Please model this.
Amino acid sequence: MIQRLSRRAFVAGSLSSVSLPAFAALPSNPDVIVIGAGSAGLAAAKTLMAMGKSVVIVEAADRIGGRAYTESSTFGVPFDHGCSWITAANNPYAKMAKDWGFELRNHVSPGEAFFVGDRRANASERKKYDTSWAKIQGALSKAGRDGLDVSAASVIPADLEYSGISQSWIGAMDWGVDFKDLSTKDNWESADANPNFMVKEGHGAVVARLGDGLPIKLSTPATQIDWSGNGVAVETAQGKLRAKACIVTVSTGVLGAGAVKFTPELPDWKQQAIDDLPMGLLAKITLQFDGERFGFTSDNWLTYWVPEEMPAKACYFLTWPFEFDVMIGFMGGAFGWELSKAGPDAAVDFALGEVVKVVGSKARDHFVKGHLTGWAENPLTLGAYAAARPGKYGARTELARPLGERVYFAGEAMAGAHATLCGGAYLSGEAVAQQVAARI
Ligand SMILES: Cc1cc2nc3c(=O)[nH]c(=O)nc-3n(C[C@H](O)[C@H](O)[C@H](O)COP(=O)(O)OP(=O)(O)OC[C@H]3O[C@@H](n4cnc5c(N)ncnc54)[C@H](O)[C@@H]3O)c2cc1C
Model:
């Protein structure tokens, strides 16, 4: 029982010490154009520049960081809309955050308050939950060891009591997809999430710091990449840029929606790879209270029983991170998409209703306000992160294959064992930049 207690997180603290990055002047004839100033794009640009190459980063949004985004206006303290845990060994952000003076909190073994209805689970219920967790992890591991790339739903024991909770944690909330849509190979190949840390000032704030000194054009969406000639010509909302190569770091959601056109068109194998790596959804519904703790301790999880039928209507909460007065609800997969479509008011109503079921109507008396993250409909992401369709794990390698040695691809979807993760996106950007530098 480790990963459900450790993989994703949230943050609080004071943002006042985090200054906005100062961008560098833009070179007029860059060697490389990087599309997207998220974790992968920033890492790619930094690496290229360290290797003596000139770069321009074009970013569609009016800020950098992409899916790494901390702001403090919603709750008065740093709130990560996207990534919040720095997970797994070799995650470059752990060192960066320490070197830059961010406050990290080890979150490897937080506690868990497990409820059945309006009361804490008894020993027998807890045992059933633990048993189902172990059986499901065992079945997934066996499929992985056997080299299977099939739907996770097809390998777990049928009619397993209390399995709805584990499926919600591992599928919907960790991978952003339900078990039927989760590739056993994707799951098996992913790195252990430990060690993992929460960042008081926000994971997004660490990523934003990377932008310091980089040549970034904000509010400049790339609309077309012409790779018919020797180099590339990138059409943007602010005009055309030419370079020897470009690195595309937008999500598979954005690629799949055709927001960036390619001339010539993407070959079938590349389009297929994009189609085989659709975006899953993890969404956060954050509830702020007036200081009442309802008996829950800081940095713990609140989990409750849900029926075995999928998709379960599960929203599990990280309670009072860094002692801040919020509970961060996590939901994902089909239910996450459905509730996101219903909108923030419906999502907040649902999440508050779940807390009321557990602690009673006093939750309403102490409720201040709620918030739903907008990754589902954000046109610059169109989901949280990519999950390979069952049987299509190989699409991750195909997605990373360059076109004509001048259009390269990087990002979380191509991060191998660190796929879906912000640190993985960084490593992917860094590795692709090294390839590009060697090539040009
Ligand atoms: C809710 C949530 C929770 C998460 N939790 C964690 C976690 O705890 N730990 C963890 O490690 N990871 C977590 N992740 C995943 C992590 O945030 C991502 O894997 C990572 O940030 C992706 O980085 P990237 O550079 O690949 O893509 P992005 O961050 O998406 O960067 C791509 C950039 O391209 C820009 N762009 C899009 N279209 C265009 C265009 N046409 N032209 C120019 N620019 C464009 C986008 O605005 C964006 O800035 C979470 C994600 C979400 C959504």
